[in-house]
Amino acid sequence: MSSNINPYEHCKIVCNPDGSITRHLWFPTIKANHVACPGDPVLSKDFTLNAKKKTRIRVYMPTTKLTSNDGDTRIPIIFFYPSTGWIQFNWDSIFTNLHCSKLALKVPAIVVDVEYRLAPENKIPAQYEDAMDAILWVREHALDPNGEQWIRDYGDISSCYQYGSGSGGNIAFFVALKATEMELQPLRIAGNIMNQPIFGGMQRTNSELMNPIDQVLPLCVLDLILELSLPEGEDRDHWYSNPMVEGPHTSAISKIGSCLVIGFCGDPLIDRQQDFAQIVRDVEVNPAAVVEVYYDGKPPRDGGRQFGWPVDTDPCFRFDVESDILGDHRVPRSGIRICIGRGEFKDGSITRHLRIPTIKANHVACPEDPVLSKDFTLNAKKKTRIRVYMPTTKLTSNDGDTRIPIIFFYHSNGWIQLNWDSIFTNLHCLKLALEVPAIVVNVEYRLAPENRIPAQYEDAMDAILWVREHALDPNGEQWIRDYGDISSCYQYGCSSGGNIAFFVALKATEMELQPLRIVGNIMHQPMFGGMQRTNSELMNPMDEVVPLCALDLAWELSLPEGEDRDHWYSNPMVEGPHTSAISKIGSCLVIGFCGDPMIDRQQDFAEMLVRHGVQIDGRFDIVGFHGIEVINPKMALFGIIKDFILRNQP
């Protein structure tokens, strides 16, 4: 099964004759922020770790500690090793930056984010050496009267922890072993946190065999990254990959500090992670050693073994992207608590406790910026805005009057929350603008229940009219006026945004928009509902991302007062005033995944479009879940969108 996947294409790498690789996967990076502004909860500074090795560290510091009056009270130091799969990803990406900022704030602690060298140019154990360099750097600066102030004055080097995700979890374990051989006092590694550590072996485990074409880490990719990272001539049973085998590391296991091992049952490596936790737990020479294991998704094999199944535990070090985005989504509404982490009040409004970091627009080009962005007020009275993204290649090219498409993007928010300018939406729009290429207009639309549907459709139409106005105005916004092709506009929405794209396409058929033309509509996992449950909903009522109780609540809060889920805004398959216009909309791309409880509704929607004579491209993948584009930005989504746009160009 895995032979159908090209692991090099999946990883976006090309091997070079000299043994190095060229990396085509790109994530936006965030610069350190060491000057406090009002509202900044965490500051950061970059330092050179080893100039010869070209390694660095970024130190994160919670501002509450800098401004507190707690005297000599010091806070723990956490060494963080990001997940790179050994071979790629930036140590200073927006994802790593967010992760470390949240970690520093929530614990609170000083977090030392370590840039370690990548394979295959630097094979293991180079990464372990870089991590140890960071530990020694902290020790040196803590003991030096002229050392880095945050470390020297605020860090507790007797309370240090290692925390690694993916390949970083592997690093944390082997550096813990190395630390047992070294004289680090007064610095002490008190604990080791391993989140989904990457381990391998020549003999396949049950969890690997059950999921050989995992969306994130198919087995052929796992095999490739270990082949590229292990010492030359070694296979996956080398102890760097498979610490369960006997090796020179075995005798030191009993000497490492307490361990926290985190795993998820959807991970093909879950069996290896459980086996790893077992061998660490079985070592009883060090009575202080504690192994805590957390699993998510469903009970692990054999009920979690003797570890138990901590259903309601939320350890401070845990950062699960899905759970963190959606809050406490497993518990239905009770009193003033509702199931996606909000508070509800008698005036019909809600208080939103979910906070996703936002990114400011960047309209001044730096050499490494592939996409620029600008913010504009859309409607001052409605308090709506848009952010326009522009690929810099277009600004610097010499292609004369060649214009590029314009894509109106409506982000997912379940109608009721999530920022239009969040880091996730920003990354999505950046990649979209860069890969198509196109001008992307990211629309801030009003949220329910304060503004019920069709307010969101009106806001989207406002954005379309804004673009038309600026394209035709000699003094209009330059990016739109000089570079955008308004005869080649597309709507693209995710989840609730997919619903918006459909209903705005219907509205556009009634309006005189020429010369602006909506050529196509892209609906990625569009959010639809209905009173009669579908098979896919009944099969997955407790979905991790969109459980049925959350879907029902979102519709209750967003539909017009007194309407149920069979209103045409929710269920366009029913007859309604929209039906007669369906045949008039442009080409449609509908994307869905079988792990989404709404997949049946999305397929019914696609079939309805076909019955009305709409030209449609339906892409339904057996592997995936609702919101997969947030969790797995490497997916082929942008290539599918680009292909759809190229095929529908006027």
UniProtKB/TrEMBL annotation:
It holds the Pfam family Abhydrolase_3. InterPro entries: AB_hydrolase_3, AB_hydrolase_fold, Carboxylest/Gibb_receptor. Residues 85-286, 407-618 form the Alpha/beta hydrolase fold-3 domain. GO terms for molecular function: hydrolase activity. It comes from the Eukaryota. PANTHER family: ARYLACETAMIDE DEACETYLASE, CARBOXYLESTERASE 9-RELATED. Belongs to the 'GDXG' lipolytic enzyme family. This is Alpha/beta hydrolase fold-3 domain-containing protein.
